[in-house]
Design a protein that fits this description.
single chain; 295 residues; alpha/beta; Aminopeptidase; 7-stranded mixed beta sheet; 33% helix
Length: 295
């Protein structure tokens, strides 16, 4: 990255930060979150990016909101981020900022996280395969505006939905919904492709019986291979929203993109509806299981 200065301001008044679905009168003690499915790029950001919109979309959990919409329609609140994670990633801690991205970053004594070091902090520096998003240095104050106007807005609403769930049911399970590139599944070098990954911080973020039940529901027809905590174990939302003493639990759910989309063209495949039906059915069954499990 050179010393070119990229100074711009974003008009946040024209951005719809998130969409929410079925947040009134929930029937199940689950909140669905889709933090990486956003495909909206602020125009000011695109004008100062070194990459095309298509290149930037390589980081997107494409169509994940659509995959679980049917489950939401059964009476499960769903919060879906509209803004691309390459602009600001709400599944990171807000302090995970790479100081090297800014020409005016304040002196900090803390050590940047591993995600920052590889360019995937709260503001991404790269997209796959190691393509720099910017050809210059950003304004640190502009980064703080992204956090205030996008990141904080999403988390404020997610927190409120969780609190409403706890108030109604006495407990809450957040299912944080993501997709994983088929390349990640393939490098595991096993004969049968991985279809779903259930992430629970190695059995720390929710009761083992709950993640085991969801795994069983996804596997019940023999169509899919499901692993727990391979290749992912959970990220920011899974870790930071988990509060067992308050009966708030978390799961991160990963879907192999190859199951439902063409990863080069970003188009849905003919299998999309079948995957959505099966995934949504498993989530609804999990909701019914939780109503009995927590009696």
């Amino acid at each position: 990255m050179n010393k070119n200065i990229l100074d711009f301001k974003v008009d946040y008044s024209v951005l719809n930060i998130y969409d929410e679905f079925n947040t009134r009168n929930p029937k199940f003690p689950i909140v669905l979150s889709s933090p990486h499915s956003g495909d909206v790029f602020p125009q000011e950001f695109l004008a100062h990016s070194a990459l095309t919109e298509k290149e930037l979309r390589a980081s997107e959990d494409c169509y994940v909101t659509d995959l679980v919409k049917e489950a939401s329609n059964s009476g499960i609140p769903l919060l879906s981020m509209n803004i691309s994670r390459t602009f600001v990633d709400v599944n990171r801690d807000k302090i995970e900022l790479d100081d090297g991205m800014f020409y005016n970053a304040p002196v900090r004594n803390d050590i940047n996280s591993r995600r920052c070091r590889v360019g995937l902090g709260v503001l991404h520096r790269v997209v796959y395969p190691s393509k720099n998003i910017y050809n210059g240095l950003l304004n640190y104050n502009e980064a703080q505006e992204r956090i205030k106007k996008v990141y904080d807005v999403y988390h404020k609403r997610l927190t409120r939905l969780v609190e409403q769930c706890v108030k109604q049911f006495g407990y809450c399970y957040i299912v944080d919904c993501h997709s994983m590139p088929s390349m990640i599944c393939n490098i595991m070098n096993e004969s049968r492709q991985l279809d779903f990954c259930i992430c629970n911080l190695f059995d720390e973020s929710c009761p083992v019986e709950v993640s085991a039940y969801l795994k069983k529901m996804l596997e019940q027809n023999g169509e899919y291979r499901v692993e727990c905590n391979r290749p992912y174990s959970g990220a920011y939302i899974t870790f930071n929203y988990c509060q067992p003493r308050r009966k708030i639990y978390t799961l991160q759910l990963e879907v192999n993109r190859k199951l439902y989309m063409n990863e080069k063209t970003y188009h849905k495949t003919v299998q999309f509806q079948n995957i959505s039906d099966n995934l949504s059915s498993a989530i609804i069954k999990l909701g019914n299981f939780l109503l009995d499990f927590n009696k």
